[in-house]
Design brief:
The protein has 331 residues and is mainly alpha-helical. It is built from 16 helices and 4 strands.
Length: 331
């Protein structure tokens, strides 16, 4: 009983319960075959691409900020790789470095504007989103004359970033698991993680305690934009082409995954494991419905219901965590 009470105080408690509830709902009302569902690649591939973006976005939200420019950074990373290495013929390493450099640059600009102005990060990254959309389209048409650019990557790049394992599972799944482990360690086992939580709780107090809030904020924005560029780069290598469109759905999907994963919009509370399971929950709701007998048009309703329930549970479990007093302290 004590272990269950401890579990309910964890940030990821709501999303694990939500994930279990969605699966049970699909089994009872959708007649889903769990063997087919868990053996399918579609929702896992979907979760991996989304998860790599969602984790740094979640860290930003824990710190009290938000980045919606990711919607433009995915096609930016994709197009940069394809233009440099596909159209101009530079080595694929140059195209990949170019994609990541664009992410670092945009993230740096977002971070600088956030810490040096009083404009909310939502508005700043909205401006970056619109600006980058225009830059991507204009640059593509100006440099190549097309809004779509083909790319043929060498075998080593395909193996590391664009292969299909077993003919169905994208290699980006491995990158997702690796990055999840790294971010989980940083957030929950290092002083940097404590700084992020402190910033989300009270930024002014964190600054007064000597935490380099500006530096950490800039780094988090760089990670967010770079992660989106990385996903775009992997997609270009996988699909042998890049498009100027795409990526906008990642804004909504990432934020929903993060919130379902136990991160509060007000900041200061959440976990990487929660975001991981939140992404899985969203992916199963979004893609798993195709394995059920439920009308596909109900998927958005299910997503909305899961989001509302998870938000309610997140707040309840947060209050449990904050009000918890160990027995030794009570004595």
């Amino acid at each position: 009983m004590n272990e269950f009470s401890h579990f309910l105080r964890r940030p990821e408690a709501a999303t694990i319960i939500s994930l279990a509830a969605v699966i049970v709902f699909y089994v009872i009302f959708g007649g889903v075959d769990l063997g087919k569902l868990f053996g399918a690649a579609s929702w896992v591939n979907f979760a991996a691409n989304l998860g790599i973006v969602a984790i740094p976005v979640g860290l930003l939200m824990i710190s009290g900020e938000l980045d919606i420019s990711i919607g433009a950074m995915i096609p930016a990373g994709s197009m940069t790789t394809a233009i440099l290495s596909g159209y101009y013929g530079y080595p694929i390493a140059i195209g990949m470095l170019g994609a990541l450099s664009v992410g670092i640059l945009v993230g740096f600009v977002n971070g600088i504007l956030t810490v040096r102005t009083t404009v909310p990060s939502l508005i700043i990254t909205l401006g970056s989103l619109v600006a980058m959309q225009g830059i991507i389209l204009s640059a593509s048409v100006l440099l190549t004359g097309n809004a779509s650019v083909p790319l043929t990557a060498p075998d080593w790049a395909k193996f590391a970033f664009g292969q299909l394992i077993g003919g169905s599972h994208q290699v980006i799944i491995i990158w997702w698991l690796i990055l999840t482990a790294i971010f989980a360690f940083v957030l929950h086992r290092t002083s940097y993680g404590n700084w992020i939580f402190a910033m989300g709780g009270d930024r002014d107090s964190a600054r007064n305690l000597g935490i380099p809030t500006s530096k950490v904020t800039i780094i988090l924005f760089i990670l967010s934009a770079s992660a989106a560029s990385f996903v775009g780069m992997c997609q270009a290598i996988l699909f042998n082409s890049a498009q100027v469109s795409g990526g906008m759905n990642f804004i909504f999907n990432a934020i929903v995954s993060v919130v379902v994963g136990g991160v509060l919009l007000t900041g200061g509370f959440g976990s990487v494991i929660g975001i991981f399971f939140g992404t899985l929950t969203f992916a199963i709701v979004n893609q798993g419905i195709y394995f059920t007998q439920i009308d596909r048009n109900w998927s958005n309703l299910i997503i909305g219901a899961v989001l509302l329930i998870a938000v309610g549970m997140n707040e309840t479990f947060r209050e449990k965590a904050l009000s918890y007093v160990p027995k030794k302290m009570k004595a």
